[in-house]
Amino acid sequence: MGADLKGAMNHSLRARLMLSAAMAVFGTLSVFVRSIPLASGELALYRAVLAALLIGGYLLLTRQRLDLSGIRREFLLLLLSGVAMGFNWILLFQAYRYTTVSVATLSYYFAPVIVTALSPVLFHEKLTGRQVLCFVMSTVGLVLVIGVTDLMHEGSHLTGILFGLGAAVLYAAVILLNKSIRNISGIHRTFLQFLAAILVLIPYVACTGGFHLAGMPALGWGCLLVVGLFHTGVTYCMYFSALKELSGQEASILSYIDPLVAVVISVLVLHEPITSSQLAGGILILGFTLWNECTPA
Q1: Which of 11, 197, 269, 271 has the most neighbouring CB atoms within 10 Å?
Q2: 234: domain range?
């Protein structure tokens, strides 16, 4: 029995380390995205293609079969969630280009607040007093991140925030759609969502600017491979492998490594400014959304 307990603890520790590493990698995404000279739509398409190839290969090597009957039952939801995922990436990449990484990331992490606000309407879930408080305080945090005085002088800052919030809305849509997908779970679902994103992004890119891989420099190629294969393919495999061994609360806590790393990268590596009010706003957004996810109602 002691050996079983020790083995379970080792599995849990390995899962926590794996999920922590995955979240830290997600937090460095912006550095590589900014070095890829492609339009956001084209970048999102190649990210999905590379990740789908890698995860598809992983599923083949591990002999994991897709549930075709489940796919047929959930086809529309999978398609919609894949479309939302692809365009969520596009808007997030655009946010990186118009404002600082820290502001874009904190705007993006407003998504759980949107999910909380919409759940009573879509799933008839009652909002508790704690959830209302978290919604209000996270919204206050968003106002501080936006910075009213900055908006009066910097149009690009506002544009970046709007792109970040648009990405948050689409990310919330992915979360809400995934709550309705019950026959396919984990990495299989994500693989199918990548395929759905590819299906929609190919005509989108063809109609909005075309394909420009041929003229991309070596640095851009290297960063694209890192974003598609490592940040998305490998890291998603790590993420879903770790989730199997962790409780929802543990996963929620560790997921906040991503925005924290992104803010540190923004300030210390990219040398982007962040005001004290934006920092306070970020603490309110992350703190209250974390409390909302981790504390039982």
Answers
A1: 197
A2: 38-205+212-294
